[in-house]
Amino acid sequence: MKNYSIILLAAALSSCSSIRRYNEQRAACIGPEELKEDIDYAYLKLQKMHPQLYWYISQKDLDYKFDSLKQTINQSLTPLQFYFKLQPVIADIREGHLALRIPRKKFTKSQIKALEHKKGMFSRFGYYIQDDHLYIIENKDSIEDIKPGTEVLAINNIPVSEYIKKYRQLISSDGYNTTFQSYFLKDVFFNFYTAENGFTDTAFIETLYNGTKQTYTLHRESKSKNDLEKDKEQEKRTPEKKVNDYVAFSNSYNRNFKFLDRDSTTAYIKIKSFSSDYSDKFYRETFSKIKNAGSKYLIIDVRNNYGGSLHEINNLYSYLAPKPYVLIKPSQLASRVTPLRTNYFRKSTPFQYAFKSLAYPTYVFAQTFSTYKKDGKVYYKMKADKPTKPNKNAFQGKVFVLINGGSFSASSIITAKLKYDKRAILVGEETGGANDGTVAGFYSYQKLPHSRINLPIGLLLVQPNIDFLNMKRGVAPDVTVTESMQDIINKKDPQLDWVKNKIAEERENK
Predict the structure, then answer these.
(1) Which domain holds residue 176?
(2) What count of other Cβ atoms lies within 10 Å of the Cβ of residue 505?
(3) How many CA atoms within 13 Å lie on the side-chain side of 313?
(4) DSSP assignment string, 441-484
(5) Which single residue of 238, 274, 427, 500 could bond 308 by disulfide (Cβ 3.0 to 4.6 Å)?
(6) CB within 8 A of 94, min separation 6: which ones?
(7) Beta strands 425-428; 479-480: pairing state
(8) In DSSP terms, which residues pair with 216 in a beta bridge?
(9) Lowest-confidence region among 135-139, 214-218, 364-368
(10) How distant, in Å, are the alpha carbons of 118, 166, 251, 389, 441 from that of 192?
């Protein structure tokens, strides 16, 4: 036990030392020549590994952007300052999954625990972004009695519009989609803000509501004993929480199912994320209930669903397909060796590293034989590109799918396939993810040599098994219905209401 305690103490000291060194490096300035080497390194890795780098931008234009960026690097910068210069060029590639990781300050375990014992400051509000304006649409704890619909004009005397313009350059959707940015930016705005400004205990916000300006002071309050007990209770994983994929941070479920009427004619499934956790059981139980109820209509809601598991959407499609289908086309790679560049040992503890070392030959063997070459291109073997049979409880009725600019990645893959197969009516607005596929799958995590900024590069070109439109846009709805900020504040849902009214109309005419 004494030796074990010494090992734990040594590991803790090593971890603290590593965090200190990282934060010192994050605050240090890097010379211009070294930064230019980082730019060249990033571009070279993208050219070697990304299977569709010039999908939305020509090589000539991208070469020019990288060269132009290098011309602007004429003084030393911190990694964070460098991030704000390089990431806009990465965003110009217009691949929504492709982004540098912002070099945030790291915290020790004791610092993290101290933060966990305090309430959030900005996260206790819900937000809406329109153009260069940031609005509060939800005040979860009635802080300062700030009303939904209040615009945040400035934070600590700096106009919010300046932040939005700066952060908007860091985000790209797939292709020339225009709906994604505002949805995603409202969720990550304060990730960028705190990376720049740190976790402070107070902030002054200037607001505008009904023509009246007012200034409030926000505080990072300590949690009460009841708050901490509630946190512990929320973290418990009950069977219901597992199947519906409970998220303690937001006190909500990733998956929900219910009938919308007393006679169970209309079933409704809300999927916030294709997380895969317990999804097989969720769909098995859900579609069994739908079949037993004899439902005629099914609404699937993937609004604000940023994607996730390919396995989950393939499984979901098996409950909707009337006949055998193939969900995606063969997934292309840049080369046969790229699957071996996925940072196999990344974030491994000493024990995990030892275990993975023993399993590494098997991993190399499996990855090597997971690729094949056809017509001069390299592909990766995937279950979702093979014929799949409909599930025995596959739904036979009419399907509506709700989509918006927050429907991204896997959400766009499945909705593009549903639309192409004429298996569902899509209602809402253009998805944030591309109609013709995306580059993701698994990643190679590259670290720029001098700034030490992480650059995850997606290695697989994943495309739905459809005839491509080549519009370089998201999945277009069959019926366009938009949602305003006031709708959200008033808890109205015009997109869902349109579907309900359509179903009611059809039932009356039968």
Answers:
(1) 118-219
(2) 9
(3) 29
(4) EEEEEEE-TTT--EEEEEEEEE-BSS------SBPPPSEE----
(5) 274
(6) 55, 56, 57, 172, 173, 174, 175, 176
(7) parallel
(8) 205
(9) 364-368
(10) 20, 10, 23, 44, 25
Could you give the CA distance from residue 427 to residue 146 in angstroms, rounded to a whole number? 33
CATH number at residue 133: 2.30.42.10
Whether the pLDDT of residue 4 is over 50: the answer is no
Q: Is residue 192 part of a domain?
A: yes
Chain mean position to CA 327: 21
- pLDDT tens digits for 55-99? 999 999 999 999 999 999 999 999 999 999 999 999 999 999 999
Is beta strand 371-374 parallel, antiparallel or unpaired with respect to 425-428? unpaired
Alpha carbon distance 431, 437 (integer Å): 12
Whether 189 is in a domain gets the answer yes
Residue 11: per-residue pLDDT: 45
328 within domain boundaries: no
Closest CA to 63 of 87, 92, 38: 92
| Structural domain contains residue 424 | no
pLDDT greater than 50 at residue 13: no
Please count the structural domains in the chain.
Answer: 1
- Alpha-carbon distance of 164 to 188, in angstroms, equals 11
Side-chain half-sphere CA neighbours of 239 within 13 A: 2
Q: Could you give the CA distance from residue 245 to residue 309 in angstroms, rounded to a whole number?
A: 13
* Cα 284 to Cα 11, 247, 259, distances in angstroms: 44, 21, 16
CA 191 – CA 195 distance, rounded (Å) = 6
Average pLDDT on 239-255 reads: 78
Cβ pair 103, 93 in contact under 8 A:
no
pLDDT, position 249: 67
Per-residue model confidence (pLDDT) at position 16: 65
